[in-house]
Amino acid sequence: MTIHPTAIIDPKSEIDSDVEIGPYVVIDGAVTIKRGTRVMAHAYLTGWTEIGEDNEIHPGAVLGAAPQDRAYKGQESYLRVGDRNIFREHVQVHRGTAAGSATVIGSDNFLMATAHVGHNCRVGDGVILANGALLGGHVQVGNCVFLSGNCVVHQFVRIGDYALMRGLSATSRDVPPYAIIDWQHTVRGVNVVGLKRAGFDEARVRAIRAAFRILFRPGRNLAIALKEVEQSKRASDDVTALLDFIKSSTRGVCFGAD
């Protein structure tokens, strides 16, 4: 273990012998850090926080701080982080609000400078939050999602797998899997580049695009469109996952452009 002499480490913490801790780092509370993780200068880790293996925590990042929620009264709640994540400068990730609840970050995610993950969020694997992206409390982010710079996601919103939000966009509705979103929860098309990078072949992409043309046509009644896609002989497993996501929404989903 390499610990800079200026770092302040709470004796309640559990730190693997293969962890590197830089200058002026503060680890305050029952923080657990597994092997291969690097914590850089001036980072602050606190609360009941569990950090997995091979993470990079850059200067000024704050992980496990109390939630920005007036309902929080100091009860024991958690932040759980997987493996191989990168938290760049001044990222903030808050722990859960209710006693025993948790904010959960998966593995292989990249949170760029000043990104914010609110209390009780659940972030999947392979997610990129670009600079200034903001997740309100209880947001659920699927796998391989890309949120561009300064995107804003309202509390309790779900974002489906392989979705992309363009810079400066915002949503208070659920974001469908595979979608490109911009402005105010507006579907602009299918994230074809992201799908191909993830290994989707042409047939899978064509099926998704065909479903999008029906579901997100401007002015289309979504309930009728869902039935039309369900009855289509071209419906695939990917399309079925898309339909299930839409039907399970309680906030409503993003809609097509006018």
- Give the integer mean of the pLDDT values: 96
Structural class: alpha/beta
What is the tally of helical segments? 4
DSSP strand count:
29
Oligomer: single chain
Determine the strand fraction and express it as a percent band: 25-35%
Radius of gyration: 20 Å
Helix content percent band: 10-25%
**Shape call:** elongated
Distance N to C terminus: 58 Å
What spatial order of strands do you see in the largest sheet?
1-4-7-10-13-16-19-22-25-27-28-29
List segments where confidence is low: pLDDT < 50 over at least 5 consecutive residues.
none
- Biggest sheet overview: 12 strands, mixed
Task: Describe, in plain words, how this protein is organized in 3D.
With 258 residues, this protein is of the alpha/beta class. The chain has helices at residues 192-197, 202-215, 222-230, 237-247, and strands at residues 2-3, 8-9, 14-15, 20-21, 26-28, 32-33, 38-39, 44-46, 48-51, 56-57, 62-65, 78-81, 86-87, 92-94, 102-105, 110-111, 116-117, 122-123, 128-129, 134-135, 140-141, 146-147, 152-153, 158-159, 164-165, 170-171, 179-182, 186-190, 255-256. It has a 12-stranded mixed beta sheet. A hairpin with a 3-residue loop joins strand 27 and strand 28. The longest helix is centred in the last third of the chain and has 14 residues, at 202-215. The radius of gyration is 20 Å and the shape is elongated. 42% of the residues are buried. The model has no long low-confidence stretch (mean pLDDT 96).
